[in-house]
Specification:
This protein has six helices and seven strands. By secondary structure, it is α+β, with helices and mostly antiparallel strands. The protein has a single domain, classed as Chorismate lyase-like (Chorismate lyase, 3-Layer(aba) Sandwich). Strands 1, 2, 3, 4, 5, 6 and 7 form a seven-stranded antiparallel sheet that branches. Strand 2 and strand 3 form a beta hairpin.
Length: about 170
């Protein structure tokens, strides 16, 4: 997949902590948890998990906000074994802080995708809405990335979509 915008390419392919990078570009950073719990996995998520693993999974969806503006939507598929161990009491803490502060987690290559802004509706988070994206001359297509972390026999899928207000689209 060719990404002509060098700023966007750097954001999408950066292997460091997205949380830390976002924090460097804003005054106030916050994680707004949309929800976490048992939920059906998408078929493409199931393909990213090892076959035959007898594991219970939870889905966590959050908005990563900078200065009260949602910049990133993140969806994570988490094994309950890690939620009872290394990732216990995650709450509204950024998942990335836990993953990048524990060298035992190993990250896969990124899978990139494009998504229409109309796919996202966050209600109270109006700044992330497609209507706001149109008003701010945001790109007609949002970009996202997905990677998988593993620790021993446990796997985590982390998908991140850069929303219209994100600095990833500067110079687009």
């Amino acid at each position: 997949m060719t990404i002509s915008n060098p700023t966007l390419r750097r954001w999408l392919l950066d292997t460091g902590s997205l949380t830390e990078r976002l924090q460097q570009h804003c005054g106030e950073f916050a994680v707004h948890k949309i929800g976490q719990g048992n939920a059906p996995l998408y078929a493409n998520e199931q393909r990213w998990l090892p076959a035959g693993v007898n594991q219970r999974w939870q889905v966590r969806e959050v908005l990563l906000c900078a200065d009260h503006t949602p910049w990133v939507f993140a969806r994570s598929v988490l094994p309950e074994t890690l939620l009872q161990g290394e990732l216990a009491n995650l709450g509204t803490q950024p998942l990335g802080k836990r993953l990048f502060n524990d060298a035992r987690f190993v990250r896969s290559e990124f899978e990139l995708c494009q998504i229409p802004p109309a796919a996202f509706h966050f209600g109270a988070y109006a700044n992330a809405s497609p209507a706001n994206a149109r008003q701010t001359n945001a790109p007609p297509t949002l970009w996202g990335r997905r990677s998988r972390f593993h620790l021993n026999d446990d796997y985590i899928i982390v998908a991140e979509v850069f929303l219209a207000g994100s600095p990833a689209y500067q110079d687009a």
